[in-house]
Write a structure and sequence with these properties.
It is built from 16 helices and no strands. The protein is mainly alpha-helical and 396 residues long.
Length: 396
C-alpha cells in the first residue's frame, strides 16, 4: 500500500489511531490472568479444586504462552502481524466465554485458549511496533506495557468486588471483560487492511539463529525470572494476605495497588533505558528494590508489607517494560526481533509457569507461606545476574 500525504490518509493509517489500537490490545493482555488470583478461593470452593490445581489455573496460560511463542512469529509471517493479532483477540474472546460455561474441564480449556490469544499478541506487537513506528520504540513500548500493567492492576482490584459485592460470582466476574475485548477487536480491525502481507519483499538480511546466541538466552532467562515473580505473586499473594487477616476484597485491592504503583515504572523505564548505551545500572536498581521489598514480607505488620509491596510493584512494572524493550534494543532487524521475541517469551514463560504450580504444591505439603518469600528472594538474585548480562550493549 502506497504511503499517502498525512492529510489524504484514511483515519486508520494515522499514527494516533495505530497507537490507540496498540493500547486497546495491551489493555486485554492481562485481565484474564490477573482477575483469577483474588477469585481462587471462590473457584476452589465451587469446583472442589486442590491448591495444586488452583495454582495450575494460573500456570496453564503460561504453558500456552511458552508453547505458542514458538509458532507466533511464523503465524505472523504467514498472515501478516496485524491479521494474526486480530485472530488472537478473537480467540481470547472465545476462551473468555468458554471458561465460565461449565465445570473444571471447560474452565481449563477456556483458560488455555485465552493464553494462546494473549501470547500471539505479546510476541507480534513488538516487531509490529519496530516496523510501523521505528522512531518511537521507547515511547510506544512504554505506553503498551503501561496499558498492560494498568489493566492487570484494575482486574486484580475489581474481580473480587464484582464477584462478591455485585453478586456476579466468579463466573460473572471473569466474563465481564468480554466488553473490553470486543472494543479492542473493533478498533484493531482496520489495521488488517492497513498492513497486508508482503509477498514479494526481499532484503539482504542474514538470518540469525537466536537459539545459538548467549545474549538471547540471557534475555530469555531475564524474562523468565521476572515473569515467574509476577505470575506467582498474582496467583498466591492474595491468599497469603488473607491468611494475615485481610478480606478477599482487601487482598485483591492490595495486589491491584501494587500493580498501580508499577505504572510509573512501566512507562518511564523504556524511555529512560533507550537513552543509555547499556541498561546495566537500571537492572541493579530494580534488583535491589526486589530484595528490599520481598524481605519486608517476613514481617507480620501489615503496614510494612504494604510499603514493601509498593517497592516490589514499582520493580515489577519496570521489569516487564525492560524485558520487552531489550528485545528491540538487542536486535538489528525486524525478523530477528520477531524470532527473539518468540524465543524470549517461550523459554521465559516455561520458567514462569513453574512458579504458581510448584508453590501451590509446596503449600499443600508444608502449609508455610515463607516459601513464597524465599522463592521471590532467590528469583531476585537471578534477576540481577541475567539482567546485567542482558543489559550490556550488544546486538544479535
Amino acid at each position: 500500500m502506497k504511503n499517502l500525504p498525512p492529510s489524504s490518509q484514511p483515519f486508520y493509517q494515522k499514527p494516533w489511531f495505530l497507537i490507540l489500537g496498540i493500547l486497546l490490545v495491551s489493555f486485554n493482555l492481562r485481565p484474564s490472568i490477573t482477575a483469577v488470583g483474588p477469585l481462587i478461593p471462590l473457584i476452589r470452593e465451587d469446583l472442589g479444586l486442590s491448591n495444586g490445581w488452583a495454582g495450575f489455573l494460573t500456570t496453564l496460560p503460561l504453558l500456552t504462552f511458552a508453547t505458542f511463542s514458538l509458532f507466533s512469529a511464523a503465524i505472523g509471517k504467514r498472515l501478516g502481524n496485524s491479521k494474526a493479532i486480530l485472530f488472537a483477540l478473537i480467540l481470547l474472546s472465545i476462551g473468555t466465554i468458554v471458561r465460565v460455561l461449565g465445570g473444571s474441564f471447560l474452565l481449563f480449556i477456556g483458560t488455555g485458549l485465552t493464553g494462546i490469544g494473549i501470547v500471539v499478541c505479546n510476541v507480534l506487537l513488538i516487531p509490529f511496533i519496530k516496523n510501523r513506528l521505528p522512531t518511537k520504540i521507547g515511547l510506544v513500548t512504554a505506553a503498551y506495557t503501561t496499558g498492560m500493567t494498568m489493566f492487570a492492576a484494575i482486574a486484580s482490584g475489581v474481580s473480587a468486588p464484582l464477584a462478591l459485592d455485585l453478586n456476579l460470582g466468579w463466573r460473572g466476574s471473569l466474563f465481564s471483560w468480554i466488553g473490553l475485548l470486543l472494543i479492542g477487536i473493533l478498533i484493531w480491525f482496520p489495521q488488517v487492511k492497513n498492513n497486508p502481507v508482503s509477498k514479494n519483499k526481499t532484503d539482504n538480511h542474514i538470518k540469525v539463529n537466536v537459539w545459538k546466541s548467549r545474549l538471547a538466552w540471557n534475555i530469555s532467562l531475564f524474562m523468565g525470572v521476572q515473569s515467574l515473580l509476577f505470575f506467582t505473586l498474582i496467583a498466591w499473594l492474595p491468599d497469603m494476605m488473607i491468611s494475615r487477616g485481610l478480606s478477599a476484597v482487601e487482598a485483591g485491592l492490595l495486589v491491584s495497588l501494587m500493580q498501580i504503583v508499577g505504572l510509573s515504572g512501566s512507562f518511564f523505564a523504556p524511555i529512560i533505558a533507550v537513552k543509555f548505551k547499556d541498561q546495566v545500572g537500571i537492572i541493579w536498581v530494580l534488583g535491589l528494590m526486589y530484595l528490599v521489598g520481598f524481605s519486608s514480607l517476613f514481617s507480620e505488620t501489615i503496614m510494612i508489607n504494604y510499603i514493601g509491596l509498593g517497592i516490589v510493584g514499582l520493580g515489577l512494572g519496570s521489569s516487564v517494560s525492560m524485558a520487552y524493550t531489550l528485545i528491540g534494543l538487542r536486535t538489528g532487524h525486524e525478523k530477528t526481533t520477531a524470532s527473539l521475541s518468540g524465543m524470549v517469551q517461550s523459554t521465559g514463560y516455561y520458567l514462569a509457569a513453574l512458579g504458581p504450580l510448584l508453590f501451590g504444591i509446596s503449600f499443600d505439603i508444608f502449609q508455610n507461606w515463607d516459601f513464597l518469600i524465599y522463592l521471590a528472594l532467590i528469583c531476585s538474585v537471578m534477576f540481577i545476574y541475567f539482567g546485567v548480562k542482558s543489559g550490556e550493549s550488544k546486538i544479535i
